[in-house]
Design goal:
Layout (H helix, E strand, L loop, with lengths): L4 H18 L42 E9 L9 E9 L5 E10 L7 H8 L9 E2 L7 E7 L4 E8 L1 H4 L8 E12 L11 E9 L7 E9 L14 H8 L4 H10 L7 E4 L1 H11 L11 H7 L11 H17 L1 E4 L7 H7 L3 H15 L5 E4 L8 H5 L6 E5 L18 E4 L2 E6 L14 H17 L6 E4 L13 H5 L4 E3 L10 E4 L6 H6 L3 H20 L6 H11 L9 H19 L2 E4 L3 E4 L3 E10 L5 E9 L3 E4 L4 E3 L3 E11 L3 E10 L5 E12 L4 H31 L1
Helix pairs in contact: 1-2, 5-8, 6-8, 6-10, 10-16, 15-16, 15-17
């Protein structure tokens, strides 16, 4: 059930205000990113910049110590036994801190509604809550010092008798967190904590109803390449695929789901990129033998170690896990579907086909899906999507979502014509500045939402669409184990079909989203890249993969992921186009500047040179402005690094000088880049003129005897 936050804040503000005044109740935080298209953090760095998060609040001043909670066992308040917390603390200041102590704290009173949880999640993380637990042995005092930039682990065990004394024991959602206190080098200890972290922990009776819950895990992000087709930022990819990297941890998170079903949302461009890394990150294959390709490489040498082993291991893990879980196939390159519908209506179909091809090659069963990072699409874009496509949309798409509505009026799905869209809460995983997002905090926020629904006997579907740049961190493998609770029924998205569907005639698409769409220049650059790739692919005799490769590259530059640096993406596309065109220009045509025909038609020769290391097949197209026809062979084959003289035939139907532009093209008539301007002079124009001349000669020969007879008669008369 989707709950507009604006409609829910009003009734709880007075309650929370009183709580703040008494410092007995505070506001926890949900942790996740806003719904904006952002590059993959730590996976692909470079020219595509990360945008600011949407829906966040800013802290007045950053704490000198950054604290994270990486694990919490159990994930709910237990009937008996301790609560264990582990995490890390990092000194982000320029000064050392001494005698660092990490104290746990719990709120006394629980939240019992989604409105309270939402508002708590958006609050300033510095707001206090509950009592700090200072009982000896139940806080971490093992960190004697913390130098600038240094990170240390901490661990806390809170026995039942301690935590039970700190809470009311009523069902609901409690806040739990830690605070860091320390002394400076002068031995002075600030009065307040200098680092903190917080999350939620539910207390729910096992007899409460189950809430159907689906978790959508994204594999998406920007993909950048050098102009020769090699992946850029190999070090970034190595980090993402490494033991604690984002992509590796996402796979670990799903692997830890055990029997719980997971729904992936995968951009196949990420999979293709990792396949390229596993193959050693080669440039585009022109069919050149390896030894010759090395000798002709014109790109700068990049001193980066390609993570072939990590890439292959990740591919193996993901394809194996895909067999056990539901996979949503995003359009290839995470195409900006909204912008494409306005600028290039053919790209969506192409991205859909390429996406399908990747999953078929991997033998992965995948369902076509569209899930814009913003959760929003204009109606015109929706019209271009096949009605059978799975669509994930934000509750902000509901017409009038900003208006105050009763919770019972909020749908789980929208029906727009033949299109059905599953809805998720757009603000549920927003992160206030100062809070850290990881698997633990997102899991606890999900449990909190499921718990308040269970307490209210609200069993409408809960859809949690993890943010585009979600990084689970080191606690990834515990994510789903902690969700396995009696009040949570984890399901695949395709089977989470309860709740209410609202039929609408339109969807809301805010002006701010329209302004963020990719511009026409991005699609022009992408189309030029695809055209150059298709042309080079067409003339090369020993390879047929360049057209597909360049189409895949072009789509990554029309992605949601490049919205925040469109110009940089256009430059990358233009650079790749220039690389391809420089190869096309190595196939040249030479023709004489002037040709004189001795008759109405006649031959002349041109020279074709192939400067490439591979054979090519091309055509010649002649552009003329008047009554001249140039005939050339349909296809012309030229060996690698060779030249060939080709005879062309010219036929003129008028006398004079005829300008001609000879262009080397592929089989589809697309120019390679080489052309020659020449002139053809015709001095005779064929059968017609011969007939005219014949008639004239005939008349002349008839006139001679007539003239002789007349002279003879005149002489006789004289």
């Amino acid at each position: 059930m989707i709950r507009p936050l604006a409609a829910l804040r009003t009734p709880v503000v007075p309650v929370l205000a009183v709580a703040f005044a008494s410092a007995a109740l505070v506001i926890p935080t949900a942790t996740a990113t806003g719904a904006v298209a952002a590059p993959v953090s730590g996976a692909v760095s470079g020219t595509v910049a990360a945008p600011a998060r949407v829906g966040t609040t800013s802290a007045a001043e950053a704490d000198p110590l950054s604290v994270t909670i990486d694990s919490m066992t159990p994930s709910v308040i237990p009937r008996k036994g301790p609560i264990r917390l582990t995490g890390s603390v990092t000194n982000t200041s320029d000064d050392p801190w001494l005698d660092v102590k990490i104290y746990p704290r719990l709120s006394f009173s629980p939240f019992t509604t989604s409105a309270e949880v939402d508002l708590a999640a958006e609050s300033d993380p510095r707001l206090p809550f509950g009592d700090r637990i200072t009982t000896e042995g139940h806080f971490d005092e093992s960190i004697a010092s913390l130098d600038p930039g240094e990170t240390r682990a901490w661990s806390i065990r809170v026995p039942r008798e301690v935590w039970a004394a700190k809470i009311s024991g009523a069902e609901g959602i409690y806040q739990i967190g830690v605070q860091a206190l320390a002394a400076n080098t002068d031995g002075e200890r600030p009065d307040n904590a200098i680092g903190r972290a917080r999350t939620f922990i539910p207390l729910v009776d096992v007899r409460r109803p189950e809430v159907p819950t689906s978790i959508v895990v994204p594999i998406r992000g920007p993909v950048e390449r050098h102009s020769d087709g090699r992946l850029a930022d190999v070090d970034g990819w190595a980090t993402a695929l490494g033991p604690n990297g984002r992509l590796a941890q996402l796979a670990s998170m799903v692997d830890g789901s055990d029997t719980l079903p997971v729904t992936w949302a995968i951009d196949p461009a990420i999979v293709t990129a990792v396949e390229q890394l596993a193959d050693g990150n080669p440039p585009r294959d022109l069919g050149v033998p390896d030894e010759e390709a090395d000798a002709t490489e014109d790109e700068e040498t990049v001193d980066e170690e390609v993570p072939t082993g990590a890439a292959q291991a990740w591919l193996d893990d993901v394809t194996a896990l895909a067999d056990a879980h539901e996979v949503l196939a995003l359009p290839y390159g995470d195409l900006d579907v909204a912008a494409a519908s306005a600028n290039d209506g053919l790209l969506y179909g192409l991205s859909r086909k390429l996406s399908s091809d990747v999953f078929k090659r991997l033998k992965v069963s995948a369902t076509p899906a569209v899930a814009p990072p913003s959760g929003l699409l204009p109606g015109a874009a929706i019209d271009e999507i096949d009605p059978g496509t799975t669509m994930l949309m934000s509750d902000e798409a509901v017409p009038g979502a900003a208006d105050d509505e009763e919770e019972s009026d909020q749908p789980s799905r929208l029906q727009l014509g033949d299109h059905q869209m599953s809805l998720y809460d757009a603000t549920m995983l927003n992160v206030p500045a100062g809070d850290v997002q990881n698997a633990l905090t997102v899991r606890q926020r999900t449990l909190a939402e499921a718990a308040v629904r269970s307490l209210a006997d609200d069993t409408d579907p809960l859809l949690v669409n993890l943010p585009t740049d979600f990084d689970p961190g080191t606690s990834a493998s515990d994510f789903f184990a902690g969700l396995d609770r009696p009040f949570v029924d984890v399901r695949r998205l395709s089977t989470n079909t309860g709740g209410r569907t609202r039929e609408v005639k339109q969807v809301d698409y805010p002006r701010r989203q329209e302004q963020r769409e990719l511009g026409s220049a991005s699609f022009t650059s992408a189309r030029e890249l695809m055209e150059a790739g298709a042309t080079l692919d067409d003339i090369l005799a020993d390879t047929d993969g360049i057209e597909r490769q360049t189409a895949e590259e072009a789509l990554t530059y029309t992605s949601y992921m490049v919205r925040d640096d469109q110009f940089a993406a256009e430059q990358l596309a233009d650079g790749a186009t220039s690389w391809l065109e420089s190869r096309l220009r190595q196939v040249t045509i030479e023709a004489p500047s002037f040709v004189i025909l001795s008759a109405a038609n006649g031959p002349f020769a041109v020279k074709i040179t192939n400067g490439l290391e591979v054979p090519v097949t091309l055509s010649i197209k002649a552009h003329t402005q008047d009554n001249l026809e140039i005939r050339a062979p349909g296809t012309i084959e030229i060996g690698a690094k060779t030249s060939r003289t080709i005879q062309l035939d010219a036929t003129a139907s008028s006398i004079g000088v005829h300008p001609v532009d000879l262009v080397a093209t592929d089989s589809q008539g697309r120019p390679l880049g080489s052309s020659e301007e020449m002139s053809v002079r015709s001095n005779s124009v064929g059968k017609v003129i011969w007939v005219i001349l014949g008639v004239g000669v005939g008349i002349l020969f008839l006139a001679i005897p007539v003239r002789l007879i007349r002279r003879y008669r005149k002489s006789r008369a004289a």
